[in-house]
Write a structure and sequence with these properties.
mainly alpha, about 35% helix, globular
Length: about 70
């Protein structure tokens, strides 16, 4: 699997198995770059259908800790 890849190496359109992909696409986020930007800005959960748990899974994809969602 791609878990060993560095987050910055991920590019292009989000794959079908990306966490919360349908909700992200409905919110206008269709690429790794857009998802990474929303993660860095802390605005993922502003997208309908993306909660703390999904945001944490997305953070894991990019190699972020996702600690904020573990409370």
């Amino acid at each position: 699997s791609g878990e060993a890849e560095e987050g910055r190496a991920l590019r292009g359109k989000l794959p079908e198995d990306f966490p919360g992909r349908a909700a992200l696409e409905a919110g206008g986020v269709t690429t790794y770059a857009q998802a990474r930007r929303r993660l860095k800005e802390g605005t993922l959960t502003e997208i309908a259908g993306i909660g703390e748990a999904t945001a944490a899974k997305i953070a894991e994809v990019f190699g972020e800790s996702g600690d904020e969602a573990e409370s």
